[in-house]
Amino acid sequence: GYRARSAYKLKQLNESSSLLSPGDVAVDLGAAPGGWLQVASEEVGEHGKVIGVDLQRIKELEARNVTTIRGDMTEEDTKEQLFEAIGDDGADVVLSDMAPNMTGEYNLDHARSVYLARQAFEVALELLDSGGDLVVKVFDGPDLPDLRSDMEKEFQYVRATHPDASRQESSELYLIGKKRITAPVKKGD
Ligand code: SAM
């Protein structure tokens, strides 16, 4: 079984958008308790690797292709740790299921979710190889079109989807950027 029901959301996203393949290097932001890590680990297989980051401690997984980092993705320190863990070869896919602590105040929750999605987008621009994919969770609202159009500049196409497995949280959706257009600038260039 999976650690979190959200595992099924990633399965659906993967089925509809072909995100994970054997041998891939995948980054999973906001990875606790680890449902997406379990799915990603299965999909990338023994020749792939998955690196998960979360504010919360992630209970160790059995899978040998998974590494976790405890940290805050809004902090430079954590990003540096992630870049080091990935190394120069970059990543094939960046996934973010990060969500803010909900206040119930719609606009605030929305703005915070977009801020987290933008952190994932920035990191993706550093890490993704040409052709790589990005998935970010956001709560729907007025800042979404700007985020989407910024992503459209960097990917061949962007789509928005509500996986059936997340239907109960109606304002939650995922933006999927498919096939990064340009190669990342390697550090030291
Ligand atoms: N995909 C996960 C799974 O399948 O188990 C569930 C993720 S849960 C919906 C959202 C996670 O985002 C929480 O564990 C939370 O701690 C994390 N998160 C929120 N803000 C974060 C930040 N600034 N840096 C890292 N993780 C963050």
From TrEMBL:
Active-site feature positions: 137
Q: Which lineage is the organism of this entry classified under, starting from the top rank?
A: Archaea, Methanobacteriati, Methanobacteriota, Stenosarchaea group, Halobacteria
Q: What EC number(s) does its UniProt record assign?
A: 2.1.1.166
Where does the UniProt annotation locate this protein?
Answer: Cytoplasm
Q: Which organism is it from?
A: Halogranum rubrum
**Record GO cellular component, one term:** cytoplasm
Q: Which UniProt keywords apply?
A: Cytoplasm, Methyltransferase, rRNA processing, S-adenosyl-L-methionine, Transferase
Q: Which residues cross the membrane?
A: none
Q: Which residues of the full protein are shown?
A: 15 to 203 of 258
| Residues reported in the UniProt entry to bind S-adenosyl-L-methionine | 34, 36, 54, 72, 97
Task: Name the domain of life this protein comes from.
Answer: Archaea
Q: What is this protein called?
A: Ribosomal RNA large subunit methyltransferase E
Molecular function terms from GO: rRNA (uridine-2'-O-)-methyltransferase activity
Function statement? Specifically methylates the uridine in position 2552 of 23S rRNA at the 2'-O position of the ribose in the fully assembled 50S ribosomal subunit.
Chief place of localization: cytoplasm
**What's its catalytic activity?**
uridine(2552) in 23S rRNA + S-adenosyl-L-methionine = 2'-O-methyluridine(2552) in 23S rRNA + S-adenosyl-L-homocysteine + H(+)
